[in-house]
């Protein structure tokens, strides 16, 4: 039983590593956001009291806005959506993603995933 458990844990850890590389690829393929969007991000970041650097990139492959990266967070916005986001809509998306960063949701998600792997 211990060998079976170990094999399943190893397989799940490999799947987690594959997901990490996939997300890194999404970030690497994404383009820099416009100065207007970066300025809006900076204003939203300051209003939430976030001090660290947060990147904003436009992804041709992302399907929804998302935050990636534990130490250096990057907000990915689909290019198809970015062209339609203006004013309050852009702020709403940015505030939502910044809230994930402020609450530490990515760290909690990682801990939850690791616990699920260990206690499958």
What does this structure look like?
The chain is of the alpha+beta class and about 120 residues long. The chain has one domain (about 1-120): Zincin-like. The chain is about 65% helix and about 10% strand. The chain has 5 helices and 4 strands. It has helices at about 1-30, 35-50, 80, 85-105, 105-120, and strands spanning about 30, 55-60, 65-70, 75-80. Strands 1-2-4-3 form a 4-stranded mixed sheet, with helices on both faces. The longest helix is centred in the first third of the chain and has 28 residues, at about 1-30. It starts with a helix and ends with a helix. The model has no long low-confidence stretch (mean pLDDT about 90).
Which helices and strands, and how do they pair?
Elements: H1 2-29, E1 31-32, H2 35-48, E2 55-59, E3 66-68, E4 74-78, H3 79-82, H4 87-103, H5 105-118
Parallel strand pairs: 2-4
Antiparallel strand pairs: 1-2, 3-4
Helix pairs in contact: 2-4
Largest sheet: 4 strands, mixed
Any low-confidence stretches, pLDDT <50, length ≥5?
none
CATH domain class: Alpha Beta
Distance between the termini: 13 Å
The CATH architecture category equals 2-Layer Sandwich
Going by helix content, strand content and strand pairing, the class is: alpha+beta
What global shape is seen? elongated
State the domain count: 1
